[in-house]
Amino acid sequence: MSGLTEGPSTQLKKSTLLFLAVTLHNIPEGLAVGLSFALAAREGSSLSLSAALVLAIGIGLQNLPEGAAISLPLRKQGVSSQKAFAFGALSGIVEPIAGVLGAILVKSIISIMPWFLAFAAGAMIYVVVEELIPEAQLGEHSDSGTLGVMIGFLIMMILDIALG
User: Fold this and answer.
1) What pTM was computed for the model?
2) What are the Cα distances from residue 14, in Å, to 7, 21, 69, 73, 108?
């Protein structure tokens, strides 16, 4: 490791970049939830209300570690608990707003939704691979980060099979 930062130079802190990435990632997720509920409400739709609810629950569950991924580094930097929590919550508040927007614009966005979701997935994969995994491997407790990823993956797979 050379210690040099990759990508375009910026004055923003890593925690700010993570906040922005997670917030951007949450917008398409919210659109997907709103879209799924709007489609489930349509007469003759093949999507059921329970499927929309399962999607909302799954996305809601994975938002908890996303909020923690924002709050914990801020807390470590000396930000107060309340302010760190607020930033974690603010990154997620865009989801219900986007959900309402997705339900309203259901006819307009249904064809471009796969692109939005691909963007959301790509944004998080980039942040995880570029920032979170390398940083999690730096300390003396690097195995706990790896174990956390494995447990998270296992929980999401169980939910996918049980509820999907």
Assistant:
1) 0.73
2) 13, 10, 11, 9, 35
